[in-house]
Write a structure and sequence with these properties.
Length: 130
């Protein structure tokens, strides 16, 4: 019993040193943010003088005008037709007008067989007059 009294007194002293847990305000979770993907930009078709007969045409229309292409390359998002003649090599790039739409010519590149750049409109005119 003589050990019980000091232990009880020590326990009471220590109990007075303990404070009650702090009351904390509940943490509010932020509201979820709704994220929307930005719309894809529309393709801008730049028509320059002399390219009107090509830009906006589909593959069948281009084949009727220039004949069978030397290359017909199907790409992931589009298609490339290559027409060759004495004056130049014409690459026509076709992409869908809209998702799931028909592919139309949106860009034209022209060069000589040695790789030298050629005026695109002059190349088209040269291939039409062959």
């Amino acid at each position: 019993m003589k050990h019980v009294l000091p232990l009880t007194a020590t326990a009471l002293l220590l109990a007075g040193c303990v404070s009650a847990p702090e009351a904390r305000a509940p943490v509010r979770q932020p509201a979820p943010v709704e994220r929307k993907a930005a719309p894809l930009p529309t393709r801008t078709v730049i028509v320059t003088r002399g390219l009107e007969g090509v830009i906006g045409k589909d593959a069948n229309a281009l084949k009727r005008v220039f004949g069978e292409p030397r290359l017909d390359v199907i790409e992931v998002y589009g298609r490339k037709l290559q027409f060759v003649g004495k004056p130049c090599i014409l690459d026509v790039f076709l992409y869908p007008e809209r998702k799931g739409g028909r592919e139309v010519a949106t860009y034209v590149d022209a060069r000589r067989s040695d790789g030298t750049a050629v005026d695109r409109a002059a190349c088209i005119e040269g291939l039409l007059n062959r």
